[in-house]
Specification:
heterodimer; A: mainly beta; four-stranded antiparallel beta sheet; B: four-stranded antiparallel beta sheet
Chain lengths: 120, 107
């Protein structure tokens, strides 16, 4: 059974840093593109970043480029999101998601999400 | 960036109704479109990919259509579990973008 379990969320002050982790199981992480999608409270979905299977290609939404870094450790079955210089507008539930095997861009499995409130 | 516009934003319907949600892209995305269902407090769930392909395990009452800039999600006969929020997503080019969502309510 495919499972994605996020961790690392929690209250952080503006300007602070946080590292989210996503533990993957039930499939070969090294064969899939992966991504992070976030959802601010009461709002819609916003794509954050994607990474290819070997980590050599990374894509970001403009609002986080230069502040966030997506990475992966296939041997550890883990995906990460390093978030620096956090702002109030980064407050959201962050979902880890797998892109389907065709690598087209649709997310076929999602984690349960981890909440990141950014507030002083 | 490609803007995705869903309509309506809110839809009231009854069990057994046939409903259609539309999604318009600001430029052509071929068939690179997905539909998701999200129940409050839960992660989104993939329903349709590549505009009209039904994800495994999704009931056949869900169907997708369209290409280019105009797309639709149809639920042929609403069931109680279908009252949720639905999002379209384009993955033709980066940045990936989602529609604003359509909330399907019980009439």
């Amino acid at each position: 059974e495919v499972q994605l379990v996020e961790s690392g969320g929690g209250l952080v002050q503006p300007g602070g840093s946080l590292r989210l982790s996503c533990a993957a199981s039930g499939f070969n992480l090294g064969s899939y593109w992966m991504g992070w999608v976030r959802q601010a409270p009461g709002e819609g979905l916003q794509w954050v970043a994607n990474i290819n299977p070997d980590g050599s290609e990374r894509y970001y939404v403009d609002s986080v480029r230069g502040r966030f870094t997506i990475s992966r450790d296939n041997a550890e079955n883990s995906l990460y999101l390093q978030m620096n210089s956090l702002r109030a507008e980064d407050t959201a539930v962050y979902y880890c998601a797998r892109i389907g095997i065709a690598a087209a861009g649709d997310y076929d499995y999602w984690g349960q999400g981890t909440l990141v409130p950014v507030s002083s | 960036d490609i803007q995705m516009t869903q309509s309506p934003s809110t839809l009231s319907a009854s069990v057994g109704d046939r409903v259609t949600i539309t999604c318009r892209a600001s430029q052509s995305i071929s068939s690179w479109l997905a539909w998701y269902q999200q129940i409050p407090g839960k992660a989104p769930n993939l329903l349709i990919y590549k505009a009209s392909s039904l994800e495994g395990g999704v009931p056949s009452r869900f169907s997708g259509s369209g290409s280019g800039t105009e797309f639709a999600l149809t639920i042929s006969s609403l069931q109680p579990d279908d009252f949720a929020t639905y999002y379209c997503q384009q993955y033709s080019i980066y940045p990936i973008t989602f529609g604003q969502g359509t909330r399907l309510e019980i009439k």
